[in-house]
């Protein structure tokens, strides 16, 4: 497995990560035993970066990763996302109170004292023009609830705007066979 530095975090992460949307059950029936076996196999093969979100199976994937963290001794990183629990999913919902509640829920699901990395989960574009959102995230870092934060985005414009905030540590952008614009 090849490893690379991850931004300014000091982490060395595998070039292949594990996305846990499917093991949350959002794509149909999944068996937690099979999902857990896949997580273990990934770790056995050197994967040390696991991507999840509080909405993947309403926290199911986070809870599976908590079990992996509890039962395995190898160091690895869990990146979770927050914000998609909002209904309606609007910019004003990305406030200190809601972000804190989302982080607290993920802390509980993951059974961690401090989350490794939290990313805003494809928020409305207006969020990137609201410094108070990033101030709230800075506050969660100061409180020790999260180590680092970043963003998960759908558009290049969102990524570029997010990078203007000095403490944004990660930008995850949708890039696949159907969405090639980031290239």
Quick check: average pLDDT?
95
The percent range for helix content is 25-40%
Tell me the domain tally.
Answer: 1
CATH superfamily: NADP-dependent oxidoreductase domain
If you consult CATH, what is the topology?
Answer: TIM Barrel
Ends: how far apart?
A: 24 Å
H/E element sequence? EEEHEHEHEHEHE
Shape: globular
How many strand units?
8
CATH class: Alpha Beta
Strand order of the largest sheet: 3-4-5-6-7-8
Radius of gyration: 16 Å
What's the helix count?
A: 5
Describe the biggest sheet? 6 strands, parallel
The portion of residues forming beta strands comes to 15-25%
Low-confidence stretches: none
**CATH architecture label:** Alpha-Beta Barrel
Structural class: alpha/beta
Q: What does this entry look like structurally?
A:
- This protein has 183 residues and is an alpha/beta fold.
- It has one domain (3-173): TIM Barrel, CATH 3.20.20.
- 32% of the residues lie in helices and 22% in strands.
- The chain has five helices and eight strands; from the N terminus they run βββαβαβαβαβαβ.
- Helix 3 (96-110) packs across helix 4 (131-142).
- The longest helix is centred in the middle third of the chain and has 15 residues, at 96-110.
- The chain is globular.
């Amino acid at each position: 497995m090849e490893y690379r530095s991850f931004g300014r975090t000091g982490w060395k992460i595998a070039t292949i990560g594990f996305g846990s949307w499917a093991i949350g059950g959002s794509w149909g029936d999944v068996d937690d035993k099979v999902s857990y076996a896949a997580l273990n196999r990934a770790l056995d093969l050197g994967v040390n970066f696991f991507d999840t979100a509080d909405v993947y199976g309403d926290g199911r994937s986070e809870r599976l990763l908590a079990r992996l963290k509890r039962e395995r001794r190898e160091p690895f990183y869990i990146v979770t996302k927050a914000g998609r629990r909002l209904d309606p999913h609007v910019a004003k919902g990305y406030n200190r109170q809601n972000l804190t509640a989302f982080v607290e829920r993920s802390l509980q699901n993951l059974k961690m004292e401090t989350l490794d990395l939290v990313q805003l989960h494809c928020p409305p574009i207006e969020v990137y023009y609201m410094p108070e959102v990033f101030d709230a995230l800075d506050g969660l870092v100061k409180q020790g609830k999260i180590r680092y934060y970043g963003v998960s985005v759908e558009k290049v414009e969102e990524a570029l705007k997010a990078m203007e905030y000095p403490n944004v540590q990660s930008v995850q952008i949708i890039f696949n066979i159907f969405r090639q614009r980031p290239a």
